[in-house]
Every structure is written in C-alpha cells, then in structure tokens.
Specification:
Three copies of one chain form a homotrimer. With 657 residues, the first copy, chain A, is α/β, with parallel strands linked by helices. Chain A contains 18 helices and 25 strands. In chain A, a hairpin with a 2-residue loop joins strand 17 and strand 18. The first copy, chain A, is globular and about 75 Å long.
C-alpha cells in the first residue's frame, strides 16, 4: 500500500502565469496529488447558468502535464451571492431565529429544497465535464461538513423535514408521546404537525425531543452527501469518493457518511486544536508548539476505523494558522513529525494545506508550504524531506499494511449529543473523556483501534468503552463473545434509545454481563474531588461518580471512594469505572487490565509515542529533550536511530518479534 | 398545631396498576397528604373542550381510600400545545423581543388576556368538579410563579397593560414626568401611550421607568393569582388556598400574593440553591452535601412571616436534583435534618418532591423518595424515620406553637429590584447582604423573624434592616416606638419612592431618628477592601461604603474606616452600618447590639444551629464532626442527646427557662 | 494664551428660582464659561414644531448677567419621543438586526435621512435664535459622538449608503473584487447592490469588507458633524465650533471631525476609565482613587494634536461617577491635580461636569461641584482653589504658550479597527499597546506629542510608532527626512490599504528604511511569554512576536528571543521591536534610543509626572507618599515647593534651561 504526499491548491487565487511554475515546483518537491476547486463556484458560474470552464480546464492540464493527479472538489460549501439571493431558503436559521448571512462560507441549510436542487445541478455539471478526465482520480464532496456550527438549522424547512423524519421513525403520534414521555409537563402532541424544533423554550426543552433533533440533523448531512456521491459515481466511474472531515468533530455521526465514501479524509491542525479544545491552560502551554502527542493520532485511529481504503490527511497544518484565538508557530521539525505520524497510523496520503499562503481574505494569515513572497517556507522544506524519506522507507519495507491494534476503543457520536443535552453536570464532556482513555492507553505504548459500537470485536484483547449512555441491545453479548477484557466508563448504559432511564436502572443492558445497579449519581463542581483507593494507588475522581450496588454473584469492588462506595467494580473480564479518574489512576488501572489481557504495556517517557505499521515501528518525540528509544537492541533503522532528538522521527524494524 | 409529612405525586406518569400500591406505601411510610395535578392539563383536556376526568377521579379515590388528603393543583403552569397554538398572545416575549416557545413549562404571559380567560375556564372546571370533594382539603394555584425568569414579559399585551397601570398610578402624564424626572436626556412623554417597556435602549433605560416596570410585573402576578383564588374559594369552601413559592426568589413581591392565600408554601432544595446562588466556590465546597446551614432556615423564617397559618415546605429535596450546574448527593441524614429544621422553624407540613423518580422528561435525574426501579431510596427511609419521630415529639410535647423571635429582620422585595436596576456597584446584591445579616444573627444562636417593612414591630428587642433604599414615611417613627435596638444597613433611605435622591440626602426619612447625611458613596471592586476599626476588632469593608456627616446632637462614630470616615454611627438605640462588612465584624457588632438589647447571644460552634418552638429546642448539626450541645445540663431529650453526630438532630426541653 | 475654568449646567433640571443664585455662585467660584443645552430638545420643542424659547432665553440672560460666557450645544444627542415615533428610520439597528429603542440617549442612526433633516432643522432654529447672542461665544455640536457603541449601524439606510460609499471609493465592482480579494470563498460580487453589511455571517466576514464598513461608518460621523458645523458657522459668525470627544475612544477617526472644528474638547473621567479599560486588576487597585498617571495626559496630548486652538476638557470628573462597574471616590486633591494636569498639557479650559448632582434619572449618582442638597462638594472646593492658583500662575508667568514635545508618538484610529477585525491573536489591543509606549516615555520624564500619520514630523528628536499596520506610501521617506530616531512597533507595515499582505512581506513600505522581512508571526496566549535578551537586560515578550529575516546591509539584531530569532533589529536611526515587551524592557530600550536622540531621559519616582509648558514645569504626584522633586535647586516655585505631598501639584520655573 503506497503512501504519498499531496497539496491543496487554488489556481483561481493566482495569476495564470504562475501556474506552470507552481506545478513544476510541486513535482520537484515530491507532491503526487493536488486538490482543487472546493471554493470556486463564483469562478465556475459567475452568473446564473453562465458556466466558465476554460480556466479550470487549463488549470487541470497544467497539473496533469507534470504527472500530478487531481482531487476535484464540488464547490457547494460556498454558493455565490447571486444564488443565495435567488432563493429565500438557502441560508440556515440559528437558535435565536435569525437567518445567517452571506459573506463567509457554509452559508446553506442542509434541509433547503432549493439548495439541494442547486447542488445537484452544479455537481452534475462538474461531474459531466471532468468525471472521466484521466488526471482526475478522486472527488471530494463539498468541504468540511458542519464547520462553524452548521449542522443544525432551525429554519422552517428544517422543521418541516423534522416532522417527516419523526413520522417515519415513530409511525404514530402516540408512539412518539410514549417514547419521549411527553406527559411530563403536559408536552403531549396531538399530531406530528404540532411539533416544533426544540429551541427558544422557557427552560430546557425535552431531552428526548432534543436528541431526536440532533439525530435528524445528522441524518440530513448524510442525505446531502449521498446525493452528491450518487451523481459523482454515475459520471466518474472508478474514481475515489472522499470527503474531508474535521478533527474531533462530533456534531454529526460520521460513520454513515463515511460508509457512502471510499476514503475518509480529515483535516489536521494540531496547534489550532490544542488552543481551541478543552485542554487546561497548563496543558496548552506544555504542548504549545507541537500539539498534544495524542491528538492527531486519535483522529488518525478514528478515521482509519471508518474508511474502506486507507484514510488520508486532506489538509495538514504546514505552519501557523489564523483561526485559533492564539496562533503559535510550530517548532522546526513538527511538520515532518506530523506527516510521519499520519503514515504510521495508516494514512495513504498526507496533503498539505496549502501550496502558498494567500495574501487576501479571511485566511491570509494561514501559512502554506510557500510564503506569500513565493519563497519556500519551513514547512515546505520539511515536506520535501518527508518525500525523500518515503522513498527510503518504501525501498526498505515495500508497501505498508494497515496498522491493527489489539486494543479497541468504542466511540459514539450520539453520546456527545446526549451528554450535552442532558448533562446533569455542566462539564461532562464526552470527547474529552474518550480522549483521556485513549491517551492513557497510548502512553502505555499500546496501538489502539477506534471503532463504532456496531463494529466486529473479534481479535481484540482489550476493549475500552468511554461513557456510552445508549448501549445497543446486542452489544453486551458481543463484548462477552469477544473474549476481551472490557473496561466500561461511567454512565454506560444509563439511557434507553429514547433517552429514558432503564427500568432496572443503569447500566441497563450491560447488567447481562455485569450485574450491578447505579442507584444514584453525583456530578462534582470543578473544585471538588473525591479520593479513590486502588490498592496502594491513591487517586482522585472528579466531574462525576456513579454510586453502585453490587447485585449478582462474583461482582467485586476493586477500588473504593473515600466514603466507601465502590469506585471500580468487576466481574471476570468486565470492569466498570464508576467515576472520572485522574490521569495516573486511569493509567494504572488500564495497565493492570492490559496485563490481564496478555498485552505488554510499558510506561513511555513523556512525549514519546510509538506506533507499528507493516512490520515497522515508528517512534516520535514530542518532547523538548532527546530520548533514548527503549527496546531497540538489534533494531534495523531506516530513518533515524536509537537516540531521538526533540521533534525527531525514527523508523525501524525491531530485532525480536 | 399538628405537624405532618406529605408528598408530591403524578398518577398520570405511571401505569394505573401501580396507584394502589403507591397509596398503600405512602400511608405505611407516614405520609398524610398528597399533592397532585399541577402539570396535568394535557391529560385533563387533551383537546379543546374535551374534558377527561375519569382518570383523575380514580386517582383521587385511590388516595382517599388510604385516608390520604389531597392537595389539588390548578394546571396552569403548563398549557398544552393546542392552547398555545390557538392564541397568539399566550407566549411571553423576552428582552430581545423574541417570543418564547412551547416545549418546557411556564410558557405564558401574565398579561395575556386570552390566557387569563383560558385560566379562568380551566380553574373553574376543576373547582366545580373537585371543590367539595371531602378528600381534597387544599388547593394550590399554578406552580412556582416566576420560575425560569417568567415574571417580566415585554409583549405588546404587557406594554399595553403597563400604560394602564401607569395611568392609574400617576393620573396625569405631567405627574409621571415629574416623578421620574424625564427631563433628563429629553425623555419627556406627552401621553401614556408614548411609553414603551424600558428595554432595548442604547444605554441603560431610565431607572424610575425600570423600577415601575418591575412593580407592574409584580402586580400582574398578584392579579393572576387572585383571579384563581377567587374562583377556587367560590367553589371549594373551607379548603386551604396555597401556592408553592420558591427559595430566595425575589422577582415579584410575595407579600400581596401571600395575603390572598391561607398558607404560604415553598420549595426547598438546599443543594441546588448552594450551587446556583452567590456563594463563593470555597463556601460551595464547604457545605457541598448539606447546603448552607442558614439557607433553608432563612426561607422558613421568611415564609413564616407571610403566612396566616403555619407555612409548609411543599417540595422538599429528597436526594440529588437535576437542575443545578452540578448536582451532588446529600449526605446520609440530611433529608431527615432538613425535615426537622422545617418543623423547628414553624412548618405545618413537609412534603417531599417526589414520590418516585420519573424515568423520562427533563427531570428524570431528580431523585424521589423511591428510585425509578421502585425501591425505597435513602431519602424515603429518612422520611419514614421522621414520621416516627413526629409521633414521639407530639406525644411528649403536644401541638407545637409557632416560633417567635426577639429579633426582626426587615425584608423587602423591591429593594432587590432597585439595587439591580440602579446598582452603582456591579456586585451589590441585596439577597446576599440580607442573608449575611441573618446568618450572623443565627450563628449567635438567636431566633429571627423575617418581616416586611409594614409589619408590626412591637415586642422585638432588636430590629435589623438590611440595605433598604426606599423607607416608608412611617417607618422611622415605628422603629423608634418599638423600643428595640435598630441596626440599619448602608444605602438605607437612599431613594424616594420614585427612585430619586432625597432632598436632604440619604438616609432621608431616617434622619428623623438618626441625624446624619450620606454625602458621598463609594462602590468597591472585588479586589478592594477598606479597613474598619471597631475598638479592638479590626475588620474590612468591601463592595460599598457610605461617607457620612454627623449632623445632630448625640450622634457618634462607633467605628471608623482606614481613612478616618465613620464606619458605624449611632445615636441611642439607632445604629447605622456605613458599609458592607466582613462576617466577623458584622457578627461582632450585632453581638454587641444584641447584648445592649438584653438578649443572650452565644457564638455557636461551626455548623450547629438552634431553634426554639413550642417550648422545645431543636439542635441541628450541619458539620462533619460530632458536637457537644451547649447548655443542656438537665435537659430532657425527646430525640437525640447532648452529643450530636454529624448531620444529627436533637430535640429537647431545656432545664432552665 | 489664557486658561480658565468652566462648568456644565442644566437649567431645565432645576426650578427657575435657583438659577440666579447658581450663576452668582459660579462667578464667585471663579467659573468663566457655562455649557448648556445638549440634552434639552424636549424642552425646546415639546411637540412637533412647537418651539419654546422663553425659558432658554431667560437662562442665558441669567448667566450673561454674571458675565459668564455660554457654550451652547445642539440637542441632537437626544431626539424626543415624538420625533422618533414620526420616522421609522431614526433608530439604529444592532449587529443582531434589532432596532435599538428610545429611552436613554444617542438613539439615532448617522445614516438616517430623516434624522439628518430633523437635525438640520433644529440646529438651524437654534443657530438663528442664538447665533449672534453676545454671551454665546462657542457652540458644541451634539454630545459625545459614538458613545454607547453608536458609530456603527446595520440599518437598511446604512447599508444603502455603504453601497454608495463603496461605489465612490472603487468606481467599479471589478476594482472592489480585486482590492478585497473576493475570489476567496467565492465571495465575488456582480454589482455594488449585492453587497450587504458584513454582519451575521456563518463565520468571520471578509476582513477587507469589515474594514471598509468601519471606514464608512467613521465617515458618516464626520459628514453628520460637518452638516451641523456648516449651519452653525453660517449663523454664528466668529464663534468657536467645538465638540466634546471621549477618552481613548477610537470607534471613528477623530482627525477629520476635528478638522471641521475650532477646538477639540474631550471628557475626562480618570476613575471610570481605569475601571472600564484594559488594565489588570492589580493596576486598577494601585491607582484606584487617582486614575492611572498617564491616562488623562495621553488624551490631553492626543487632543492637543488635533486642535487648531488649545483643546479643552469639556467635562472634568468632579467626584465619583455612576457609569463604571464600580465607582470609587477620588482622593482629596485629585480634582485639583487633574485640573492642573490639563493646563500643563495645553488645555485652554477645564470645564467641570456638572454644576450640581441631579437627584433623578440615569446619572443621579454622578457627582457635581455641588451636592444634591446644594452644599459645595469637595470637588467644588478644589475647583475654587484652582481658580485662585490660575491667577497666581498667570500673574507670575503671563499667558502660557502651548507645550511642544521632542518626542512624537504616531497614532492611528484605523489601526484599532484593523487589529480588532483581523487580530490573529485575541488580545492584540492597539490602544493598550500605544498607551504602553506612551507611558514608558512619560515615566522617563519626556514630553510627548501624539500626532496622526500625516502630521509634519520636523523638529522631533524621536518618533515612536506603535503597531501601524497600514503605512502610508510617503511615511518612510518622511520618517527618514525627519532626522529623528524612529522606533517601530511590531506588525507595522503588515497590511496594504486594502488589508492584504504586502507582496514583499511586512513591513512593506518600511523596507525602504529598514530592509527586513517578517516571514512569520506568532501570537501568544496569556500564559505564554518568550524571553528576550537585550545586553544585560533580560525581559519578556508576550501577546505577539514577529519572526524577522535581515536582508539589507547594515541591519543588525540588537536583541534576541530565547530561540535565537531577532527581537529588536536596527539600521542606523530606525529600530524595529519584533514583539510586545514588558514594561521594564520597553522602557530600557526607549531610554537608550532617547539618549541616542540627544534627549535626557530620567527615571521618575513612581507616581511623579512632569510636564513643561510656557517655560514652567508642572509636577504632579499621583503616589501615596510625599516626593522630593528632582533638579529643583534654584527653581522658582509659583505653586507648591520642592517637597510634593501625595496628590500634590507644584509649578515652577527651573534654574537652568
């Protein structure tokens, strides 16, 4: 399986006189594929029905002439002003009832009928023109679905389609009333036509109503993408269908969208992510110019799990970005490190965003491989080095098989929505807690697969389930049948599919494999922790704890809270963590379970990460100081050596194995 | 005067097959009364005019058959969707001009004519059907007026009614212009019809205008409640009229509303209150699972002062709740402690919310006496114990007379609005400062009555007046005539009834009994304090200070600020605190005044609170550690003993007295 | 050039019986001029077309009878209710699309045609009546343009006028598309009529679009003011035209507005400013009751630079104000100190706001020279002392020439807008950084002129340029020609006039005098600093740094960041600070440059400030402790002496010079 580099390019931003030189320099740098077109609608169709293909034809030819493959994008993320002005339902409506305006991007409503038709039209026109072009080997639908909080709209169109969606889901209004429990507060409906979007209410809207609205909105994204893919496949036979997803973005369920594609790709901006996400200020300072050592890899492992073919990084941060509250510059070496990290985790392509920093518009402070003065930037030089190293690795090791971990982490998009809607504690943030389990496993040197709840579980020695409120009926049996050690996070099984409390209390269906009852829960404000004793290890719980009754035979409390309630319970291979624990305690317990699972966890030095792919080990040093790699006696190094400089990369075949 | 337990029950939430067992178990637990119906409109009238009484008839019979008394509620807090859809003026309008939506509760405008009529209709229908039912011994109007910021609406209806209200108050537009002082910034009106709600202005709206809008909105609540009470009294002779008010909720003036009722009841959630109110993070941590030792009792003493008959706790927190940002679980024993605390302060009934935790809807994480799996919860077991102890106490002491303190604290709802509208210092929070005076008195072991400014003041040895900006004309003379020591908080008498500065400067009318002038004021940002010297006691002022000139004979400065300005001034029995002082200084001065008043203040150990009722002393331990009760030599204990465990309760008759 | 005191007076707020006594007491206090009328529209024209001049005629006569000069104001800041109700376009529209409401002040849209006409009408009527009145010697247009965020409106009128403004600026839509770079994200326009206000977009709107909207809004203010001035000049020959600007208020460009006036005046509230502006809590505490020692003077030096005649302080804080979040009272002596500070920096008049504290309306807690009970307040007594001292100074020194610094600080309003729109780091706050350079210079005892980028630069020994993103084409040559030492802040020259990155990278045109390239930038979150080594001086950069390549001959790195990048670069007399440095480092480098410029910087004791005017030195002590004045041997003291008490003022002629 070949690995390669790509780049994102906007010929429409530059004088045509520069195109040829750009293409030549791309080729010389080692670039193999070029993504174009995703924001070019106003140039392709400057006025209604007035198509201008010439410039785009020429741009493709210039690239093709250098042997570069083209990833063509549909331009639907940025409909032009004239289109928006012609239809009154294109713009989405926010939670305050205000129409969003034209003037940036993603200014469309997934539920707009007129925009659905306009999208069909432009996608068909593009597909007809370039679908069979030999240089166009892949198609990207739209761009970053959902970016800037655009999944959910409260427009009349969305509300109308929501009612239909509910009708299809519940069949009768009586069934809906029963499933939601609308008798509470006299919220009963007499018909689907009475149901509005759950917004603008005096106090919180009904949680089951809210959860269904999020499910509906997620389905709308999948419907819209499927429309594009179907048109493209009809006109572009044999080409790869891709979309560029975002990092740790959970506003719609990515699995059904990815199922319609060939390749899941994602856009990797480790520094922007660190600044904008949940990390504490001291963590942001610690990894300021490298990103968190487990953040990019979390996404690699996630998208690997939803892609039929090797996933791609469609946009790789090449230097400072413009969109975070603060935008540090990456340490020298990080662009190379991030690139190799992606390949280590299974990427088929790493494509840099963008070829050259553009001097105008919203993103003018976003770095490219080249500076606005057209000199090669630091990131460009590092990309060039990666291209050379790819050759070395492929010569030494051939094509690399996909990585496969012995540990699976079950990930669920709707868990995020549910805990957001119905949090019971204001800082219960699903992505954070899922990430913390992942990070603990990675710091133990383990390779991890991130998989959906419906994935096959065979072959895993250990399965970690971050808080999973709605447990599919068949999951307990499948967990049992896997033979793996299973670690369940708090609040697992705490809700039915309709967002009700299970009749036998949480963990609901999981009681089949772990006979306990969570009879009470407690959320904890930020200045509160509760001590936890796990043998000699003293830790702390924060955010949340479940108070658990042990009911069946063989269940035991492995650790206890300060007030005596069980903190970890276990029966045979099934473990339940009854709270959110600190990093050290989480790691200690996962290490213990990993050993029980027959794995060989090892506590890596801070900043070191290891990943295996195709018989090779990839070692990455996120730390400030040089590191000695463990267990490298007799290793055969292809890149680097047993001493790893800061921001260094080593690739080697270990002696034993 | 008998004391008893009750519970809130929602037969419409449960299969009818469970009702009888529920009623039997209630009786067995010691429950005497059951509140029902306050959110059941959609079941009583599922479609316009289609009344379904059968289920409710049967539910009442099932309860009556066990000898349980029924508190029937009007269901007006949750009009059904069809009703909202039939009238375009039911939903209130927020400060941004947006109509609030259906989908939670309290989605109605107190000024809506159509909702007023719909309310009359449903209340009349209910009253006609159950008004004379022997088991229905009390009626609750609506539910928690004002919850979720629903007192004030900016709808066209509200604005229209506001104009009429102004016309009635001022008679002529000239009188209004003069009273408000609209010549300032050319805000003069030519007619009442020109006056809008004071909202959406470029900078702050006129404070007199804003204050009148709050008074108007408060009056609208009273008008609405009075409408319900009048209908109910006409059809339900001899039944008690009640409403369940909220904790420390000052958005409308409760005194006129309570004056139309027989029993003021309130809903007590000590843990939710601690989390959501003004307390500092370290205070929230200190009392995390007990609530603040003076919070529930503040409300008990407040509602006791507005109730013709003994007040009730209509909803008592039975375990964790769902609605605070974080929701800890109460320590074992607290449900019992809170129950006895209510009785100690004069409650006639403590009614738990709710019988059983409901597994669906917004409040599914709100505990009940029973768990969703129908097992008795911890709170249920504690309620059962309280029921048994009630019998012991009543056997030993007979019916308990109402408590009566020697200390009065004057409380005023409109003071909160005024300081919010016209704060002059962003953290001048009336409820907090009133509470801090109360808490200091309680920590000195004193029983306190909280009374309105128009209450008779005879019989009090000490009267404490938290910042009272508008002083009724007759109050100074009444304070003087009471013979009590009077302690006035800062900003007292600082405004006329029209929100102007008194011509002779503050404290305005209070100059009759204390001849001083507040010639300047100073608000202080959170990181600023000013030292205060009171004899040997060194303290700090924060938030606010008044700079005071002494004018008349016999006035003296008892304490001074660091820069020499008087901090406490006094003439004879009248004391003025010219700032907000820290806890220790406040307590030290109140102790000194209490001694001057002939009382016997004592500094209680942290967490211990005492209250006397009917010749008994009730001792409550909010602390983590056991306590030895003071002055219990020779005491006769009915419950507990002289050593009080954490969260313990003791009830005894002291030897002396 | 004579200096004098004035006061702001509102005869319409007080019984006519008080007017004469007020005028007599003003005269006795030493007041020479009285400002009236700026909020009196509802009294001048209580109903449409019904003019009532009598009261105003009499008020002017009463003042004139005491020899007081009158500054008459146009009342356009507060149109009456009837006027607002007659036109549907007077009220501005906010960023959420909501019309702002009547009920406070400044409730008008600069782009409203009907309000423009109504303003013309009332200004003409006033000018016709009082234009030639001998006592009316000056006219103030409106009041505090832009206060309460009223510069920018998103109304249909504003959007329509914006399109015309763009048409005039760009000529063709193609030119606009090219200048902005609308090809980015398909934002291209086909005509000016397609362009909306840059608001309500899904993510940030195009920065060039936003910057032009700010420029347009700024021009609208100038257009509106010019309309008033033209009418007034036509009817009031020889009178001074003035407007009262605000402190550190950058929402419109003041230079073109001031160019239409004779005197720039400003409203000085040092305590309110300290509380509301960017200062850290500990700085707010340090200068709580004095204001920051450089804040009022910054504004003095700023407005001196835009005024044809000596600027005035039109409103001087006389005691506590009402509008900050917290409102401390000034230390005794500060009203006097602030008054003398104004004169020291070149003021022609210091006018106190207001004569007497008004007991009603929004500002009832704003102090005046007199208290609401009509006793003289502390500020009044200090004003009286200043009036006497003015006589002493003028007797000793005659009329005082304007101050002239040897150091110029280049100030630019649009820099603030640009960095706000396109910040790249969330806390890059232009006014703060400009102020910090100014403050460092002042703490070195240097007199500073604040001047616009187009000002003549001859005669300055040192020119300091805070971050100036758009550098006029001729500025580099003018800086060079001045012969001064030039210190450039980071981000200077970073954008073209259309908000694009210069083709040769920043500092763009400044490369003519300093051949470097800023090839990368980095913004730093609040918990991040980067060490800087300047010889022996170790400092820190925060917020921002530029990474600089040295390109031409003679450029050298004078200081370096911890990672080796240059922190300060220099060629000959041109210095570039490649980051935001801490106070000590900034001061150290500016001191070094000042010495190179031949100046004599001296590090003043904390709180001491010196300013020279008309051959005199004015010394002001902002500190808590007495100070010994440096270099006063042989000095001739007119006010005070060489020992300066806290909050003290000394005025003297130095021996040497």
């Amino acid at each position: 399986m070949s690995i390669r580099l790509g780049v994102c390019y906007y010929p429409e931003h530059w004088p045509e006189a520069m195109w040829e030189s750009d293409a030549q320099r791309m080729k010389a740098l080692g670039i193999k594929q070029v993504r174009i077109g995703e924001f070019a609608w106003s140039r392709i169709e400057p006025a209604p029905g007035e198509l201008q293909w010439d410039w785009l034809d020429r741009a493709i030819e210039v690239l093709a002439a250098q042997g570069l493959e083209v990833v063509m994008c549909t331009p639907t993320a940025t409909p032009p002003k004239w289109l928006v002005d012609r239809h009154d339902d294109v713009l989405a409506v926010d939670a305050n009832g205000r129409k969003r305006h034209f003037g940036s991007r993603r200014h469309y409503d997934f539920s707009s009928d007129s925009y659905f038709e306009e999208s069909q039209r432009i996608v068909r026109l593009l597909a007809q023109r370039y679908g069979k072009h030999p240089a166009v080997t892949a198609w990207q639908t739209d761009n970053e679905y959902g970016c800037h909080q655009t999944v959910v709209s409260y427009s009349p169109s969305a509300q109308r389609r929501f009612r239909s969606w509910l009708r299809a889901r519940y069949g009768s209004i009586e069934a809906l009333n029963a499933a939601w429990g609308t008798v509470f507060w006299s919220m009963e409906y007499r018909s689907f036509d009475e149901i509005d979007a759950p917004v603008g209410t005096v106090t919180e809207a009904h949680p089951s109503h809210r959860l269904d609205y999020r499910r509906f909105a997620s389905d709308e994204v999948a419907r819209y993408n499927r429309m594009q893919v179907e048109i493209l496949r009809a006109h572009a036979p044999g080409r790869l269908m891709v979309h560029n997803f975002m990092q740790m973005f959970l506003e719609f369920d990515h699995y059904p969208v990815a199922a319609d594609l060939d390749v899941a790709t994602w856009d990797s901006y480790p520094l922007g992510a660190l600044e904008e996400m949940w990390f504490a200020p001291e963590v942001k300072a610690r990894w300021l110019r490298t990103g968190h050592p487990d953040f990019a890899s979390f996404n690699h492992d996630l998208y690997r799990g939803m892609s039929a073919q090797p996933f791609w990084v469609m946009e790789q941060q090449p230097g400072p970005v413009n969109w975070a509250h603060w935008n540090p510059h990456p340490l020298p070496g990080m662009v190379r490190l991030w690139s190799w990290e992606a390949f280590a985790h299974g990427a088929g392509c790493v494509s840099y965003f963008r070829w050259r920093q553009v001097p105008f518009g919203q993103e003018q402070m976003h770095a490219g491989l080249n500076r606005p003065d057209n000199r090669l930037d630091v990131g460009g030089a590092e990309a060039e080095r990666v291209a050379l190293e790819i050759d070395q690795v492929e010569q030494a090791a051939g094509e690399l098989a996909q990585p496969r971990g012995k540990v699976a982490l079950l990930f669920d998009y709707s868990a995020k929505w549910l805990f957001e809607i119905h949090h019971q504690g204001a800082d219960f943030h699903y992505p954070r807690f899922a990430f913390e389990y992942y990070s603990a496993l990675r710091a133990l040197g383990l390779d991890v697969d991130i998989v959906p709840v419906h994935a096959p579980l065979d072959g895993y020695a250990m399965i970690v389930v971050p808080p999973l409120p709605i447990v599919p009926d068949d999951l307990p049996a499948r967990l049992q049948a896997s033979g793996a050690q299973v670690v369940l996070g708090p609040r697992s099984g705490s809700k039915t599919v309709s967002l009700q409390i299970p009749g036998s209390l949480p963990p609901g269906p999981l009681q089949q494999i772990l006979p306990v009852r969570v009879w009470r829960v407690e959320s904890m404000r930020p200045n509160i922790t509760e001590p936890v004793a796990l043998g000699d290890c003293q830790g702390q719980a924060s955010h949340w704890r479940d108070l658990v009754e042990l009911e069946g035979e063989g269940v035991q409390a492995v650790a206890s809270f300060g007030d005596g309630h069980p903190a970890i319970v276990r029966r045979e291979r099934v473990h339940y963590l009854a709270g959110i624990f600190d990093e050290a305690l989480t790691q200690a317990y996962l290490e213990q379970v990993a050993r029980a699972a027959g794995l060989a966890p090892q506590r890596l030095p801070q900043g070191l990460r290891l990943q295996r792919r195709g018989g090779l080990t990839f070692a990455l040093n996120y730390a400030d100081a040089p590191l000695a790699l463990p267990d490298t006696d007799g290793a055969a190094f292809i890149v680097g050596g047993p001493q790893l400089e800061p921001q260094g990369v080593a690739i080697y075949r270990t002696a034993q194995k």
